[in-house]
Fold this sequence. Notes:
The complex is a heterodimer of chains A (66) and B (460).
Chain A: H1 2-23, H2 29-40, H3 47-57
Helix pairs in contact in A: 1-2, 2-3
Chain B: H1 3-6, H2 16-28, H3 33-37, H4 48-64, H5 69-79, H6 85-93, H7 102-130, H8 137-152, H9 164-179, H10 193-199, E1 207-212, H11 218-230, E2 236-240, H12 245-263, H13 270-274, H14 279-293, E3 297-300, H15 307-320, E4 326-330, H16 345-363, E5 367-372, H17 388-391, H18 396-399, E6 402-408, H19 409-412, H20 414-420, E7 425-433, E8 439-446, E9 451-454
Parallel strand pairs in B: 1-5, 1-6, 2-3, 2-4, 4-5
Antiparallel strand pairs in B: 6-7, 7-8, 8-9
Amino acid sequence: MPLFNDLERVKLRFIQTCEELVAQGRLDESEFQEILQLLDAMDGYDDQQLRKELSRISKGLSDLLE
Amino acid sequence: MSLIETAPSLNLPMDLYAERRVLGILIKYPDQIDQVAGRLKPGHFVDFSHRRIFEIILDIYHRQGKISYTQIYNRLRADNITDDPAELLIPLTESFVALSELGPSVQSLIFKEGMRRLLKAAEEIKALALDEKNEDLLQVQAKAQELIFSAGRANGAEEDTKDLLEVLNKCYLNLLRRREGLEDAYGLSVRYPSIDGMTTGFKRGDLIILAARPSMGKTALALNMAVNVAKRDIPVLIFSLEMDDEQIGDRIVLSELFGRKQETEEAVSSYEYQTKLSDDQFLITQKVFNELYHLPVIISDRRGLTANDIKASARRIKTEKPDLGLIIIDYLQLIKPPDNPNRSWTLIVGEIVRELRDLAGELDVPIILLSQLNRGVESRENKRPMLSDLRDSGNIEEFADVVLFLYRDDYYHPDLAREQGTEGLVELIFAKQRKGPTGTVQLRFIKEYTRFIEEYPNGK
């Protein structure tokens, strides 16, 4: 259970960061929604696929992955 | 964000930590939602954002069957409740250690919500008591009782509206119980197969009007049904505005003596019961008394009760005996109307009946309200009562769930009845049933013993 909660906290912090990027104009709303959907379905992706998808949605915005 | 910052008022009983624990656990273990949804409503959460998160959890779960923080985040964002949904949600992930914390946390929320309702009722009662416009003490007492009673009902705060899903769940459970032949899946049986067959039992919250011209046996039938119900340990409350407690007691004993008459040689007649009994007859009667002593029948024989008095008294009894199963009021025309000379009798009666129907719903108990029919019936050739006979006395039939008329042909044609052997035959005319068929069934009335018995085709 701690793992589940840790992961959920990380996801929420990540979404928080993405929302800041939306506020800065570096991500648009549809991209933000795509990221949310991706996170919701992330159990179905391995690490490589997830990075690839995130990179595609954010058009290579490397900040998202760091 | 600290708990104190999000609390709407520190003067209310609340457990914000339990609110967080429940939400955190439900998101992690959505399979617990069905179990919790029947016990908790959004009103159990004091913190506004917690309440909204609970609503969102229920909504997402019912739509998709699964929940995620991501989806809740998105919904909170769309609601514009907060600038930073993550700051609301992250504490939920840290709010609990194990699933076993769910039960005690739910209990805590139910307890605190009950306390808040009591506190609210107390504040309203205080305002009532301080209101100098009040002049009628009884009315204020009745209102205060109503407030306390409503506050004491479990989970009552948010249940005025229900989703179709919730309603259908209840219907489906009842369907299964009926299929399994469980008795409580039906309404309240009065142990007259012909009546129970028509009604499938009187339903909780229903108002049943039992109407007839005088001397048809309304009170006798109502008392017979009351005893039949009480014999199954189901409490019955009787408001007798006409007869006093001893008259009712004697009628109940007499009616039971009829049963003994069929079982033993030594019959006790009504006349003997009211004059002098032989030793054997005394023993038989004593046995009947002993059998009746323990029956849970509560009798109020105060005259001149208003509808408010009846409501207050019924609420008190229901609080003392939560399993109260039936209320009988004998009879409508003797309920004292409120003092208002400018209102018509029709309107007043309509209002009393409506209030009693609301009481049946509030207490979740069937109420049998006896009513006299006026002389209009006598002027017709066919004297069987009809729904229109009630219309002259207010909109009784509109508010009633069941309208049951009693009609005895031998009352009008005694000689013919003697010739045809139909003496004592009573027609029970179901003129209206919201949840069942209309039609007529027959019982036999043994007038001497004020006892109704089933009338079988073979004459037994």
